[in-house]
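Data deposition worksheet. Section B asks for the primary sequence of the deposited chain exactly as it was used as input, without tags or linkers unless they were present during the calculation. Section C holds the resulting structure in token form. Section D is free text for depositor observations; keep each observation to a single sentence. Incomplete worksheets are returned to the depositor.
Section A, Depositor: J.P.
Section B:
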Amino acid sequence: MTGKTAAGRYQQLSNARTSVLERARSAAKLTIPSLMPPSGHSESSTLPTPFQGIGARGVNNLASKLLLALLPPNSPFFRLMIDDFTLEKLTQREGMRAEVERGLNKIERALMTEIETTAIRVSAFEALKQLLVAGNVLIYLPPEGGMRVFRLDRYVVKRDPMGNVIEIVTREDISPDMVPEAMKAHVKQKSTSNEKTIELYTHVIRQADKWIIRQEIKGMTVPKSRGSYPLDKCPWIALRFTKIDCEDYGRGYVEEYYGDLLSLEELQKAIVEGSAAAAKVLFLVNPNGTTRMTDIAKAPSGSVRSGNAEDVSVLQLEKFADFQIAFKTIETIQQRLSFAFLLNTAIQRAGERVTAEEIRYMAGELEDALGGVYSILSQEFQLPLVRVIMFRMERQRKIPALPKGVVKPTITTGLEALGRGHDMNKLNLFAGAAVQAAGLPPEVNKADFLTRVGTALGIDMSGLMLSPEQLAQAQQAEMMRQMMDKLGPKGMDILRDQLKPEAQDGTQAQVQ
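Section C:
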């Protein structure tokens, strides 16, 4: 495999990509055509324009929500965690645990500053739109910073049966002026006189415990382009929207709703063309009548002409009932697509009295539908992103080199955030049950009732409810406070003086 040229390997792997690419182009045609233009497209070519705009609106909306969930602004989406055994060794000294956590927090802030200042979010938004439409995208994190995005028609990928990437080949068109001096004679010999661009291939292949990378032009390896990266720190990251075992490419989100989008496109096209035909004003004149056609055509507004009104009529389509059926179908499809793409119109139902709690519930239900998307993106996008940026900053000496295998990044957004939201909902349900427990009859053991409610909700009850001793102390403190409010300071002094002799008599009786 390694003995073949990168160009030959690209052509060989592109055969398996053909059907995937056609599906991506069909999905882009109904949403945002520029995300995956037709074959042979150039900057001067005209792209098709869909008759409906809900596809483009839905892709942009869902990509924005994913971006905010995966890379939230002004807050880290990960934490650097140290394994318990190493942490136990380090924290044997007094105050060492806090010092280790402060050091890791500094590194987290440095990583977030790097992400914020290198405009990674802009490229990440483009990559997420590619994932939604095409289902696949390749991102590259160069050593100088930032992020590059490769569309599906610019790279090929090979995976093992478990879905792990084992080979990537990219193709780029560069200017002949960008060819290294040492290769210009070779490129000139292999090129034709009318070539305005040169194809540059980048071959990324997995070998044992590392990645081998090289670049190639016209079958010749580019000087100083060979390199290697650790297995978990490769700057070339091939993403997919869905994981399908034994397949090299994923499927896009738009493909799952392609039927609705195609139906909406055809219906909207029919409505637009029918409306244009209905808007055309055309007068018909009876050829056997007394009214002349030229009198009607040339008469200015408000003029008087001789003729018979029954000789003149206006052409009408009389398709109102048919259009109504199309409109009803369009509304139904739009509602389904609004739910699919988490549009605001799907959250709030039509009605005068829509409570804020109902809106929050609907929004939560729609957000939960992204749980599967968050799970794959956290493992294949967020974690590799953090590892590569950490590796890059360590080599640039912007952060200290950390011991291998000791500190690991953990994602705290996306699916983790959804989990914390569900924990909050469970606690709110438990609080509501606690309020209701106050009105239960005395035959019911309220403490046992609340314990069973918490267990049924899957809540960790440790420390949540007071023990009998803590409850007695809290009740005694509350009684003293109420007594103090009623008696006042002087009353409390009198009561304290009365209680002293009783306490002394009790002590003497115990001694005897």
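Section D:
The CA atoms of residues 124 and 331 lie 33 Å apart.
The first strand starts at residue 78 and ends at 82.
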